[in-house]
Description:
Blueprint: H1 18-44, E1 58-63, E2 67-71, E3 74-78, E4 81-85, H2 109-120, H3 128-136, H4 145-163, E5 174-180, E6 192-199, E7 205-213, H5 218-230, E8 239-242, H6 254-262, E9 267-270, H7 272-280, H8 288-299, H9 304-318, H10 323-330, H11 333-336, H12 347-350, H13 354-357, H14 369-372, H15 383-394
Parallel strand pairs: 5-8, 8-9
Antiparallel strand pairs: 1-4, 2-3, 5-6, 6-7
Amino acid sequence: MSDSNVIKLAQPGAFTDSLTEILRSGARALLTQAVEAEVAEFLAKHTDLKTETGQQRVVRHGHLPEREIMTGIGPVAVRQPRVRDREATEGARIRYSPSILPRYARRSQSLEVLIPILYLKGISTGDFEEALAALVGKGAPGLSASTIARLKEVWTEEHAHWQKRDLSAKRYVYCWADGIHLEARLEEQAQCILVIIGATPEGKKELVGFTDGVRESSQSWRDLLLDLKRRGLTTAPQIAVATPALAKAGGALGFWKALGEVWPTTREQRCWVHKTANILNKLPKSLHTKAKRALQEIWMAETKKDAVAALEAFVETYQIKYERAADCLTKDRDALLAFYDFPAEHWKHLRTTNPIVKAPSRPSGTAPSGQKAAYRTRRRLPWSSSLSKARRKIGAASTAITSCQN
């Protein structure tokens, strides 16, 4: 019996997991089947091609050397089939370009997304191997500090290209704006990432623009909006959703001032989630539950008339004793109820800046890979299906929404 009470903890990559090994073995078998099926489909498309001697022109030609693909469950070894064109001529060679296992792929897309997330979370380039060893096992090749540094250079180039893309063919009926504070890799000053998301007439949310700046600075927002306008986004959205004024910012969020200067016709909608938090901060905690329920009756009302009645009831209840809370609500009255002037099926999207805060899904080619992990914003809104049906009925061709990088 040992007298020591010191417990040795397993180090990253120093333990074996039978379940993970089974999953990895199954993944290898499935991946092998998939790449074999893909090459078989490619050969089937060229079965009609024959050589001068009557033989099959496009045939299998063994396998490439085995290589390991780093995945979310660790490295998976696989061999890619080769294809040969027996009568290849200059400029007319039939080439096989696999989509499942691209020629130079070394990591799965899920791992490609994980790398920038870890970087944004503050993992230094020298600690990536250890961090990923704990997640995917000790066999994590190709993820050294120099590899991460090269990836950062690629992200920077992609970002520069994306920031210059042409927006003249784009139109957004709604937009959301907010400032997102990341956990690392920012200056010591109070800076954040300024984000604008737009909804197309077809009902898709897309990342429109982002830059680093000061959330409460109208100049930072003005620079971003003017940059979008200069690159062709001349049609102003019908309504913009953003956070209310912040007391610590002197009572004015910079976005609203910049919006009025760049897109003066765009209506303003304050985020109800942020406004509720601002109002509750001016009430004692004992009243939070009751007050929150009363505020919900405003923005959850079935009609604008009912919302106005609920708002007046809230003011009447709290005005005398908690004047600051009532004034916080009434000063943005019109901007808080603006969403009621739009289709009812859109209300739940226009009441808050949740499209930015929750970041529901990936923008699929609308942003550089280094930023996709941070801003996954594209998804269909409820009017997209009904709009498509209407367009089919009148025989209009729906417009394909493509990103500048596709």
